[in-house]
């Protein structure tokens, strides 16, 4: 990665992180409810019965209300567990599942750990992001886990990044290893961005 791209990503991530930290609790609750509604509709539209998702942190658009409902409806949900080698293992979510702090201080599920290839069986991937460009390029938080996962999948299903409305940008800094997403979900809308990306 060139220094200019790395610097641009670092600067943009810092700005986005700061913006997220300034959101009020009320704004976060409203966003989580919007995300729940948008993701419910997305699953319905895709007829998805098995998905991957992530446990949101306190500053991310909230996925937990959605996860609770998805599990109650019988959707199979895989949640990521970080590994030291840069790959993601997966745990099948349960309604009473415990959560621990993972390698980077992020919430991770406790349960039987499945290998990185477990995600090949899902109908839909719901991934975190710092921002998404209108061309479908996703800016992650810099550890490369999802780029590696998406880049290694033989038959990648639709991939939707979850961000706040202000985090859909005209474009984001990108490097060769960065993977595009199919669309983006915000508290107020779901946009199809790059249907032929995978």
From TrEMBL:
Its EC number is 6.3.3.2. Substrate binds at residues 55, 60. Keywords: ATP-binding, Ligase, Magnesium, Metal-binding, Nucleotide-binding. The keyword Ligase applies. Its cofactor is Mg(2+). It catalyses: (6S)-5-formyl-5,6,7,8-tetrahydrofolate + ATP = (6R)-5,10-methenyltetrahydrofolate + ADP + phosphate. The keyword RNA-binding does not apply. One of its GO terms (biological process) is folic acid-containing compound biosynthetic process. Pfam families: 5-FTHF_cyc-lig. InterPro entries: FTHF_cligase, FTHF_cligase-like_sf, NagB/RpiA_transferase-like. It is an enzyme of class 6 (ligase). ATP binds at residues 9-13, 138-146. One of its GO terms (molecular function) is 5-formyltetrahydrofolate cyclo-ligase activity. Belongs to the 5-formyltetrahydrofolate cyclo-ligase family. This is 5-formyltetrahydrofolate cyclo-ligase.
